[in-house]
Design brief:
mainly alpha
Length: 85
């Protein structure tokens, strides 16, 4: 799970242009969509595509909803479920 968390942090940093310090401070409850101005509807596609590429997973359109993007924890758990099956 730690590697997946590190990967998700890296994606948010790289795609959204966030600083290392800012991303390092994210915890499970850190709100994402609607709270991070950098994570708008256009950026969501880039973030999810990059997560797919880095973790070798496929995220179907019908899996994408506001709940999975609600917090750092929900996004990380979603990615982990996809990786672990």
């Amino acid at each position: 799970m730690l590697d997946i968390e590190t990967t998700v942090r890296g994606v948010l940093r790289d795609v959204l242009g966030l600083s290392d310090d800012r991303v390092a401070a994210f915890d499970e409850n850190t709100p994402l969509f609607g709270a991070l101005p950098e994570l708008d509807s256009l950026a969501v596609a880039g973030v999810l595509t990059e997560i797919e590429d880095r973790l070798g997973i496929l995220i179907e359109d019908d899996e994408v909803d506001g709940e999975m993007l609600e917090s750092f924890g929900t996004l990380t758990r979603f990615a982990a479920q996809k990786v672990l099956g």
